[in-house]
Amino acid sequence: MTVSILADIVASTPVDDIHTHLYDPAFGSLLLWGIDDLLVYHYLVSEASRQMDVSLERFWSASKTEQADWIWRALFVEHSPVSEACRGVVTVLHALGIEPRHHDLPALRQWFAAQEPGAYLDRVLALAGVRSVCMTNSPFDDEERPLWERGFPRDPRFRAALRIDPLLLDWPRSMGRLRDWGYDVGPGRSGRTAAEVRRFLADWTGRMGARYCMVSLPPDFAWPSDTDAAWLIQEAVLPHGREHGQALALMLGVKRGVNPALRLAGDGVGRSRLDALENLCGANPGNRFLATLLSREAQHEAVVIARKFPNLHLFGCWWFTNTPQFIDEITRMRLELLGMSFTPQHSDARVLDQLIYKWRHTRERLVPALESRYAALAASGWVVTEPEMRRDVAQLLGGAFDSFVGAH
Ligand code: FIX
Ligand code: ZN
User: Fold this and answer.
1) Residue 296 Cβ < 6 Å to ligand 1
2) Ligand 1, atom 12, residue with closest C-alpha
3) Domain range enclosing 345
4) Which of 81, 131, 136, 367 is the most exposed place for a label (fewest CB within 10 A)?
5) pLDDT tens digit string along 77-116?
């Protein structure tokens, strides 16, 4: 085996990106792209907030263009853009044939303004080597809900996932919304309420063609426990999952609004109680669970749980762990303890163009991680063939996930 064969295979195998915040083009302006959206990405906002000479109050009251100007100046002009998120912008521009150092922001804006959106989408997907993206779709989002209700011709490259954070984490308010939408729910944790929440989940699964259901949970999430979230999971979400053969994705360890002044950029991390994950998987063998962990410290424990429960599939190096160092560590650990039965990465892209850097940077790390396992295996007397490498990489870039959640 030569590294270049493996590198070619990794580069040319199309990705099914299993979690993003991108939207089907039918959602119009909700599908973000271009230099200003790349610069005001919340990863960059939080980094720039440490170095910008403008108050957050002033920053948020400014236009997107002005915000992008400040971020560009703070992170790219006044300092070298060495962070992973900054480097991402450079990777994107470079892949598009733009030399960022030879352009100022107005020139970059002009370049993006000249792109035809449909052709640009095709180009970005091709440059990223991405075949499909899974969206994050919330019935509680007032911007996207009306379009789902009206219906629209789907772009088959954009798949749906049903996001239910408000349902589980703010039940008193969500109960009111469900009532407004015609579901007979009420306080008191009754059988009728649970059945109506199941009907709500079934309606939205059908409307979206949701491949899986998903929720992000704080570090102190416990299961079982005497909370609305645990009750709703037990009586509505898990029965719904069993009835519809739908996996539940748990994104564990996010502390929302640690610094509210940073808005979307203000979320933090805590080490999750993974006994909740262990308990859920153990007590519900008829359900399938997907999980990603936000804290580095939780990763090893999660891998061990996945070894115990085949109804658990780990995915992604999420957010603060999506850096080369942690991708190396987490991917190698998963390969060594789980073989090929996990999905190393999702992009979490919020801006279309980010697909290019998120997948280039991931592929850069996947090659040495796989190469070291294949080399160790060869040293032990098992040489992996080229077709076998193709099979393995296809599984890691979406195939294993597809088999786990079931084809839709
Ligand atoms: O909860 C999520 O899906 C997170 O990925 C987001 O909330 C987060 O803002 C993000 O974009 C991380 O990459
Ligand atoms: Zn996300």
Assistant:
1) no
2) 319
3) 3-32+129-405
4) 131
5) 999 999 999 999 999 999 999 998 888 999 999 999 999 9
